[in-house]
Amino acid sequence: MSSKNLKNSPLSPSLENLYKAYESMYLIRRFEEKAGQLYGMGFIAGFCHLYIGQEAVVIGLQQAVTTNDSIITSYRDHGHMLACDMSPGGVMAELTGRSGGYSKGKGGSMHMFSREKKFYGGHGIVGAQVPIGTGLALAHQYKNDNGICFTYMGDGGSNQGQMFEAFNMAALWKLPVLYIIENNLYAMGTSLDRHAAVTDLSTRGSAQGIPGKSVDGMDYLAMREAALEAASYVRSGKGPFVLEAKTYRYRGHSMSDPAKYRSKEEVEDIKSHHDPLSILEAEILRQGGDKDHLESITKDVKKKIDAAVEFAKESPEPSESELFTDILV
Amino acid sequence: MTVEKMPETITVREALRDAMAEEMRQNPNVFLMGEEVAEYQGAYKVSQGLLEEFGSKRVIDTPITEAGFAGVGVGAAFGGLSPIVEFMTFNFSMQAIDQIINSAAKTLYMSGGQMGCPIVFRGPNGSAARVGAQHSQCFASWYAHCPGLKVVSPYNAIDAKGLLKAAIRDPNPVVFLENELLYGQRFEAPPSGSDFILPIGKAHIERPGKDVTLVGFSIMVGYALEAAEELAKEGIDVEVINLRSLRPLDLETIFESVRKTNHCVTLEEGFPYAGIGSELSAQIMEHMFDFLDAPVLRVTAKDVPLPYAANLERLAIPRSPEIVQAVKNVLYNA
What is the DSSP pairing of strand B9-11 with strand B186-188? Predict the structure, then answer.
């Protein structure tokens, strides 16, 4: 079903919802652009994986999240943290390795957590978060708290053996876990057709009998609808579901990847014709939304991110005594 | 002749089961998962009776999928539960070592102290008998190497019960290394009452002596005690330290002993290279150099994959005669 047909469906979001989604997606976009700049200026080091281009995926899914749900992802995690309402300053200060960061500067870009927001990382070993998310789902089932776990992975992660292991247990025990495969077409530099024997990743759980669906991850409305349907399936106790979000990352795998394995034209085509923010903006205007209001949203977001950058630069490095803390409880 | 009342004894297997059952009764968030732990009652019958008492929600048979269920355990711990994850043997934990090290051990630090991981990974470790190289390895030094983990290895029934209860209550990830050959051995029963617990990080002097210190853990403690009996006949007074905990290491107890005996032999079933004995030797050399009358000697497995043939296996794994010889060497070298 195309998102255009959604207008009269009960799943159709209000204009207010679209504005809010636009704000959240633009927050991620702006945050990541600034992170890229700070990286270039030497404030951020090491591995830094930007989410630009994939914003509609996490914001669409976030529409289906309820109070007790938990969220876990891999190392391309800044967008997920912002979507979970973690503070941009706290995330940015972690990127700069400062004491004001979510992990006091001891985790870095790939390792942030917030028990309060039920965000469980931020994991640097490709695919390792899949069994962990499955375990979070087991905890939801054990405690019978009506929560489900949103477990994200990339197309690259969906080749890992432990993903199939986790899928098997999740299906066997009917665990409340929604697996989201963010298929951005490249596992680092290896394109989908060179790394996956079956490129329809919504079938990743077919051997375990897990239903799946592919969705246009550049289209917020489509993402939102698919997320609500999938989450409601999982929440009803039927077991796991696999949602493949077909998306694209504008930048390289990490800041140190010049992305020479794909053509400029390919990237430009996506940016011009499939940009998630442009698609959502067009939809807002089509529904009679106000261009000026969108501009005021972007202005406010820019201010918010500027403040986050300021905080991340000003926050002091962790005290040297932090070296030996937090090793054991 | 008066007949002394024999002290009550139980097997290590029963002690481990009792520890889990008591902690599961006390804390509804404690559960056991692993291969064959429920219906089969444990591949080595350690979880006998637990399914019947606690039901399939809390005693969970997993598929043969170590990386997967170790990760599921870690996630459940992040989610507020206290899992006990059984590996049928620690040899199979190699499939899951990424989850144990990268996910369980490091996350507290990487989260700036937010995300503790209260989980126990337990199962038999070290050599069994005639099961070949892939099923006969001691992983003590592998796990003890890593900050963020506690590593415990019991010898007798008191250790098994007291340390496993401590491990289950500990808010940190604990690797709990048992020994298959000890499961069926009977030892003095632990004190009754569910409050009995042994502190992690504290060694125990199994036999006091003044001439030489033997430091070991798990099944090697038994061989050390045999060797001590043998050596006593020759007038050599051996002190035997049961480490109980490999990380943190109770250096104070070891140092105090070496201060007294001035001689030390370390014991383990693992390979010599970068083993627990290597760490003990380094620590003793750095801190106790002036108290040593001879270099610390290590009794270890041979530096080979464990052979199947009975005679070769016998040569590869250290037992009490090697310990007796090492004690003589360390004393005569003085």
Answer: antiparallel
Say yes or no for a CB contact (<8 Å) between A169 and B73: no
In a domain, B70, yes or no: yes
Count structural domains, chain B: 2
Among the partner-chain residues A106, A125, A130, the one whose CB lies closest to the CB of B109 is A106
Across the interface, which of A132, A140, A169 has its CB nearest the CB of B74?
A132
Same domain, B115 and B30: yes
Q: What are the pLDDT digits (tens) for B99-148?
A: 999 999 999 999 999 999 999 999 999 988 899 999 999 999 999 999 99
Give the residue from chain A lying closest to B110, CA to CA. Answer: A107
Q: Which residue from A151, A235, A200, A80 is spatially nearest to B79, judged by alpha carbons?
A: A151
CATH number for the domain spanning B247: value is 3.40.50.920
Assign domain A37-309 to a CATH class: alpha beta
Q: Does B152 touch chain A (CB under 8 A)?
A: no
Distance from CA of B286 to the nearest CA of A (A): 21
Contact B212, B236 (CB under 8 A): yes
State CA B87 to chain mean position distance: 14
Following DSSP, what letter does each residue of A240-257 receive, concatenated?
Answer: -EEEEEE---SS-SSTT-
Q: Tell me which residue of B298, B332, B333 sits closest to B318, measured CA to CA.
A: B298
Regarding whether B266 and B179 lie in a shared domain, the answer is no
Q: How far is B95 from chain A (nearest CA, A)?
A: 10
As a whole number of angstroms, the distance between CA B65 and CA A241 comes to 20
Contact B318, B300 (CB under 8 A): yes
Tens-place pLDDT, residues B153-210: 999 999 999 999 999 999 999 999 999 999 999 999 999 888 899 999 999 999 999 9
Q: Which of B224, B174, B183 is nearest to B327 (CA)?
A: B224
